[in-house]
Amino acid sequence: MTGIIIKAVGGIYTVEASDGVYQCRARGIFRKRNISPVCGDRVTFSLENDGTGVIEEIAERRSVLIRPPLANLDALVFVSSTCEPRPNLLLLDKFIAIAVFKKIEPIIVFTKVDKTSAKELADIYRRSGFRVFEVDNTTGDGAEALKSELSGKLSAFTGNTGVGKSSLLNCLFPELGLATAEISKKLGRGRHTTRTVELYKLADGGYIADTPGFSSFDTNRYDIILKDQLADCFAEFAPYKGKCRFQDCSHTKEKGCAVLEAVSKGEIPESRHESYVQMYEQAKQIKEWEVGS
After folding, report:
1. CATH class of this structure's domain 225-290
2. In terms of CATH, what superfamily is 2-59?
3. Structure confidence at residue 220 (pLDDT)
4. Consecutive H or E run containing 107
5. What is residue 195's predicted lDDT score, i.e. its pLDDT?
6. Structural contact between residues 197 and 264, judged by C-beta atoms closer than 8 angstroms
7. What are the pLDDT digits (tens) for 202-226?
8. Which of 59, 110, 133, 280 could cross-link 42 (Cys pair, CB 3.0–4.6 Å)?
9. Residue ranges of the alpha helices (H) in 209-286?
10. What does the alpha-carbon distance between residue 255 and residue 264 come to, in Å, rounded to a whole number?
11. What residue ranges of the chain have pLDDT lower than 70?
């Protein structure tokens, strides 16, 4: 039988198949191969006499994230509030770059637009070619357009704690009844309300995953973006590829750099280039031999 893992807790995997949901465990061979089944995995499993299943095979993954553990994502939905907490554009840009690097579509959602307008922020990312949505969780305004975008896709929602991620999911899919928490004014951030990753099936097709905040959205050795690969993770740089004076241009400070000229003309958002420069400086410290070590 085949199915998709929709929940994984303590070595027990909940697998949804065409004829129902099964509780499965994984063959020991996966542990020997240092492979762990994760939510989103398409698996082949056999049934025991007691009705439980045993995962025999994991299909080839299109993509995989280690933290949060998810496989085969079509889209990563990055939720950022316009205020309380203030948006961290460098952090947002870092994870957009990782999504692009791993060939997962990034979708950006700005919440709390009832308190502070998202127009300026949304414009930055729309100009960069990304799908951007502005949602008022108190009225539901903007939710339908986002809901339609997610139809038929396997998507994960992530964002800094306190940005209204669970509130957004409740706004989109009230039948889920996910737990929410108020912003901690003392700490300036929210309390963690999501403990584990779980896929929720959508009525009109597809799945969504609620995940821990960005503090737990981590990269592993396969997610490291080397400095020579970084520019390709910024879609707005693409029209200027090969147009710089120097073939090995880093797009950070060189004379005759087409990207820098585009930034000066306002064709590339300044904040996006600033994030690129900071990420490039960090990537310079990474040695190629360290990747995969």
Report:
1. mainly alpha
2. Nucleic acid-binding proteins (2.40.50.140)
3. 46
4. strand 105-111
5. 53
6. no
7. 888 899 886 655 545 554 444 688 8
8. 59
9. 227-230, 258-264, 270-283
10. 13
11. 176-195, 210-223, 288-293
